[in-house]
Description:
The complex is a heterodimer. Chain A has 10 helices and 13 strands. Chain A is of the alpha/beta class. In chain A, the strands form 3 sheets. Chain A has a 6-stranded mixed sheet with strand order 5-6-7-3-8-9, with helices on both faces. In chain A, strands 11-12-10-13 form a 4-stranded antiparallel sheet, covered by helices on one side. Chain A has a 3-stranded antiparallel sheet with strand order 2-1-4, with helices on one face. In chain A, helix 8 packs across helix 10 (277-291). The longest helix of chain A has 16 residues, at 160-175. The mean pLDDT of chain A is 89. In chain B, 42% of the residues are buried. The mean pLDDT of chain B is 91. Chain B has 10 helices and 1 strand; from the N terminus they run αααααβααααα. Chain B is globular and about 55 Å long. Chain B has helices spanning 2-18, 21-39, 44-75, 78-83, 90-119, 126-153, 159-173, 185-191, 195-207, 214-243; one strand at 121-122. By secondary structure, chain B is an all-alpha fold. Classes of the chains: A alpha/beta, B mainly alpha.
Amino acid sequence: xxxxxxxxxxxxxxxxxxxxxxxxxxxxxxxxxxxxxxxxxxxxxxxxxxxxxxxxxxxxxxxxxxxxxxxxxxxxxxxxxxxxxxxxxxxxxxxxxxxxxxxxxxxxxxxxxxxxxxxxxxxxxxxxxxxxxxxxxxxxxxxxxxxxxxxxxxxxxxxxxxxxxxxxxxxxxxxxxxxxxxxxxxxxxxxxxxxxxxxxxxxxxxxxxxxxxxxxxxxxxxxxxxxxxxxxxxxxxxxxxxxxxxxxxxxxxxxxxxxxxxxxxxxxxxxxxxxxxxxxxxxxxxxxxxxx
Amino acid sequence: xxxxxxxxxxxxxxxxxxxxxxxxxxxxxxxxxxxxxxxxxxxxxxxxxxxxxxxxxxxxxxxxxxxxxxxxxxxxxxxxxxxxxxxxxxxxxxxxxxxxxxxxxxxxxxxxxxxxxxxxxxxxxxxxxxxxxxxxxxxxxxxxxxxxxxxxxxxxxxxxxxxxxxxxxxxxxxxxxxxxxxxxxxxxxxxxxxxxxxxxxxxxxxxxxxxxxxxxxxxxxxxxxxxxxxxxxxxxxxxxxxxx
Lengths: 292, 244
């Protein structure tokens, strides 16, 4: 079942083109991860999906409704990056206020327990720390039993325990058929929950792929060493040479080392490391560029 | 469910305002305090005129702080942004704001009237008081619009200062603190051009059982149009700034 679709969506702020011709479909039960450097257009994309801003052209539908409509809003939950609440309301009052907007809200006590708000429930939010505010915001996203939840950097400011607890709940939500759209800088956190990754840079989708595809790249190793004259090597995915230091990406690091040794070329300072997600995505971007 | 949503929105709004003395003390207590200091005493029609002046002064204060200052603060809050992603958010938000404004209007006016009955001997009847209260609700419209404009043209740090800077001199110039004929000469001539003066004229006419002064009604309609335009302009500017 299709939960959300964006077709040819563009948005400019004066001269600045924040998004151009973005198309994206999200199916029910999926976890879509939006990646990209700051200023890439992630926030604009999210604001458009939430119906907080209107696109210059193109169309957006959430379960067949316009994104700013009540019909769409009654199916979504949202956690912003920065959250504040009326200072002199308690966490419980805030949750109940939000829940009252939904037809089938989650029981308040259940949310309080799930998000570890027991100690905070009867306290005014004005005295909350950043992490505590964030935990309340997470609870609110799940308060409406929405079909689609948008999480903008959901674990910023959370300690390890709260993080684990949150992802546990998110996984359960997805297992029960919920859909998540997550923006994050820490893909390692969402690796085992994300089903698809969408990389946005300079207002366009640079890469869209299933997480397995990206994980395959992550299985590769990065070898770096200094050597005068590099012999001809096989099983190399990517090769870079900066100031005499060679950086080689390969699915089989042992094989590369064997080749180096048997070629008898002198080399020093060999280091082998796993790929970071960014490096894996870089490789995929290179492959895209070559194939297109 | 809809009734529950509205009820909860109103209850929550009132709770959060009453938990903030910095908000309700100036709105509820200042008019009655100023009335006790400068307006109370005496008897007959002049005592009731002074009561009417301070009722109107109090009601205009609610408009300034309930709308203008609140809008300026909300514009910068992530909470308001979040609220716009909730279904059916606009209705409860507006209704809760109006209802709490009404609650404050009734309280601030009630306090001034009670003080007048205690401290002076005004020539009033229940009918006149109800007429005055109803008229205040109409009189307050241009000031609500002015305060909405202020909400869009100031920010959360300057809003309270600017609101007071408009509200207090306007009250004084309009003759709400002392009768216009007792204002210093230069200031008395300015008085004619303030919305507060015309609001006062309407209130005094009601208390004095005189015919409504047409000139003041026209002035207030004029101010309403100007302030509505300012508010709309400010709103548009804010929308553009935020989303364009």
